[in-house]
């Protein structure tokens, strides 16, 4: 007797999986495009509005304040109301807010709208990764989630292209760049009506008929050999008894800080903090740092575009290694590589060394992001999966708030060398924390949140 989640786990990667990954991935890419665009807007406004480093820091950090709140609240809402609905809502919020930001008449208005953008962005990422992880076949789940995260590189590359070709066209170039952010608002309708709800979430709410319909659709896409016996038509046996592993709502699910989960929660939060601190501290400021080194605006955008291209092979390597080495080792190795690359970037002083070190940083850092998003949803049961991932992301966003504010101070205290030395140390701490996470490659996602249940086993 197989449960619906077991039936999903045993499926091959079908056209339905591909469409779902593409649908969520486009939303993910649009998210990255928005985050990436602000770095080019900051560099342009430094010239046009005469913004100080402190004012630029406020523009960068206020978005991450919104992301911290959005990640925490979005995960809780997704566990309560469903993954698909919250995913669509987040796209709508940040799309409309970004479009409105293009009409900003001053710094205060831009900062206020960037906060709203952050709310949507922060909520969208953990919800999307949770939704995809709950549909991906067990044997390639990590690879599929890294594939989702790879869309981030496409979005950041799109931001770099817009920054390179659109922002420099004139005084209103940055406005036209932000206007592209309206696209997610339209795409939210596609998400709302075109993607299925998580089967695990539906079953946790007793919506068995709807869950069965979703599973049948995926089985039909896989072919006739994946059909079900009559005993499995409604998820119950012929005698009306409940399958042993079918998820049931629990009155007292374990919390993220219960004895069973506190170690992995602490380690996950440390990794999220370290990777956010270094990634956003470096990449949000990258165009401005290049301008400060003496490169003109167009040349700094060109170098940023080249550096961004290295994100794609970084994701590809992580997607392959995560099912070979496992989640924990892949994450730790890519974080360690990021630390080395950050140190080299701090010492770079010629165009060639800047590009080489920057590409290494892109390669390792974005590969680490892919592994992190794959491992997070596997650590918790369905009842707390989205909120567990979301709260870890929310804690990490505190670092992304702090990092842009610290960069000007670090620059004054020791220049670029000090800035990237601090980023390297943060990567090292995150790598050490990653080694303490459990290895869950090949395991089934845990369905029950009850303390009386055993952890999900292999097979």
From TrEMBL:
InterPro entries: MFS_dom, MFS_sugar_transport-like, MFS_trans_sf, Sugar_transporter_CS
Xref: CDD domains: MFS_SV2_like (cd17316)
Top-rank taxon, per record: Bacteria
Ranges where the Major facilitator superfamily (MFS) profile domain occurs: 20-442
Keyword Membrane in annotation: yes
PROSITE patterns tied to this protein: MFS, SUGAR_TRANSPORT_1, SUGAR_TRANSPORT_2
Biased composition (Polar residues): 238-248
Locations listed in the record: Cell membrane
Region (Disordered): 223-252
Transmembrane segments: 21-45, 57-78, 85-105, 111-132, 144-167, 173-195, 266-291, 303-322, 329-348, 354-374, 394-411, 417-437
Protein name (Swiss-Prot/TrEMBL): MFS transporter
Organism: Dietzia timorensis
């Amino acid at each position: 007797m197989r449960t619906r989640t077991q039936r999903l786990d045993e499926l091959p990667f079908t056209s339905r999986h591909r469409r779902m990954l593409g649908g969520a991935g486009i939303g993910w890419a649009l998210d990255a495009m928005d985050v990436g665009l602000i770095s080019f807007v900051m560099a342009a406004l430094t010239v046009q509005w005469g913004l100080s480093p402190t004012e630029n820091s406020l523009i960068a950090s206020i978005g991450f304040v919104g992301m911290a709140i959005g990640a925490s609240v979005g995960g809780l809402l997704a566990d309560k109301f469903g993954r698909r609905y919250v995913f669509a809502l987040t796209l709508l919020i940040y799309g409309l807010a970004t479009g409105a930001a293009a009409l900003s008449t001053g710094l205060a208005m831009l900062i206020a709208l960037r906060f709203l953008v952050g709310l949507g962005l922060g909520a969208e990422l953990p919800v999307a990764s949770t939704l995809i992880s709950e549909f991906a076949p067990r044997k390639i789940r990590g690879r599929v989630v890294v594939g989702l995260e790879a869309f981030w590189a496409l979005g950041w590359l799109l931001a770099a292209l817009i920054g390179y070709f659109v922002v420099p066209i004139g005084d209103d170039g940055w406005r036209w760049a932000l206007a592209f952010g309206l696209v997610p608002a339209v795409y939210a309708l596609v998400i709302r009506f075109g993607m299925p709800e998580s089967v695990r979430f539906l079953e946790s709410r007793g919506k068995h008929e709807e869950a069965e319909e979703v599973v049948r659709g995926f089985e039909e896409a896989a072919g006739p050999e994946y059909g079900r016996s009559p005993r499995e038509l409604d998820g119950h046996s012929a005698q009306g008894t409940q399958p042993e592993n079918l998820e049931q709502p629990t009155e007292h699910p374990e919390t993220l800080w219960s004895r069973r989960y506190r170690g992995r929660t602490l380690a996950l939060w440390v990794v999220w903090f370290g990777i956010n601190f270094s990634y956003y501290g470096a990449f949000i400021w990258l165009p401005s740092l290049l301008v400060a080194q003496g490169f003109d605006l167009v040349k700094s955008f060109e170098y940023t575009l080249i550096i961004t291209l290295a994100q794609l092979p970084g994701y590809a390597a992580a997607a392959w290694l995560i099912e070979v080495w496992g989640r924990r080792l892949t994450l730790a190795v890519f974080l360690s590589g990021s630390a080395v690359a950050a140190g080299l970037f701090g010492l770079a002083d010629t165009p060639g060394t800047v590009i080489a070190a920057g590409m290494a940083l892109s390669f390792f850092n974005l590969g680490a992001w892919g592994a992190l998003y794959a491992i997070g949803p596997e650590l918790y049961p369905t009842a707390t999966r989205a909120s567990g991932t979301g709260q870890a992301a929310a804690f990490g966003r505190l670092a992304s708030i702090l990092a842009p504010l610290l960069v000007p101070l670090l620059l004054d205290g020791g220049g670029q060398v000090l800035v990237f030395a601090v980023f390297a140390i943060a990567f090292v701490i995150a790598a050490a924390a990653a080694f303490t996470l459990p290895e869950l490659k090949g395991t089934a996602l845990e369905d029950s949140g009850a303390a009386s249940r055993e952890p999900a086993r292999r097979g």
